[in-house]
Amino acid sequence: MNVRIEPDRRAMSAAAATHAATSIRNAIDRRGKARIVVATGASQLDFLAALTAESGIDWARVELFHLDEYVGLPESHPASFRRYLRENLLDRTRIGRYHFLDGEGKPDEVRARVGRALSEEDVDVLFAGIGENGHLAFNDPPADFETTEPYIVVKLDEACRRQQVGEGWFAHVEDVPGTAISMSIRQMLNAREMLIIVPDTRKAAAVKATLEGKISPAVPASILRTHPNVTLYLDEPAASLLDPETRKKLSVKT
Prior knowledge:
By secondary structure, the chain is an alpha/beta fold. It has one domain: Rossmann fold, CATH 3.40.50.1360. The chain is about 30% helix and about 20% strand. The chain is built from eight helices and eleven strands. Strands 5-3-2-6-9-10-1-11 form an eight-stranded parallel β-sheet, sandwiched between helices. Helix 2 links the parallel strand 2 and strand 3. Helix 1 crosses helix 2. The longest helix has 23 residues. It starts with a strand and ends with a strand.
């Protein structure tokens, strides 16, 4: 795993965006299009702002999938990930194709339909974060490392729901939907390249567990260490709990 640590969130987001833009351009140059998966949430806002400001990306040749969506939440809700992607990505670019997970549809039908589209070809690059509980997408611990379904219906744990309140998406834990449609862990790992963007002190414990603990469903993000082409972007606050020996062992760039 390549790990890059920047002094602050802004620098981290800019570095990740430059990398992401290069990966998208390279995919388009190589095969005429790029298939991407994009995460949502507060941790990705600066990254997406920097990415959409990059020049030289033919967004009309980009096909977009997203990681997850709350079951039962309308797109008009401030926490809707469809709304998030429209406001922070689609409205700023000319993306040619996109596939939304309709939280108001029947979950099994939605995940099957989008999963079929996702499975048609490989994903060139996937952008994601890590949750405070170590989740990837909405795969909370203990995550399912075995299913080959592209998307699954998951129950959100208490820590995940509290994070959504803490980030300001909901007023109370009781307001956070209890279930979501999430890309599966194995589907995420099918991407040719993964860029994981993780800022803030509140993610430091999860980052430490991801890099220093056992690879285990109890720490879903630990599975990233098995992928051949993943770069983890951290700011110093997110990296603050890492043991100095960890920095030496990993391919860390600062």
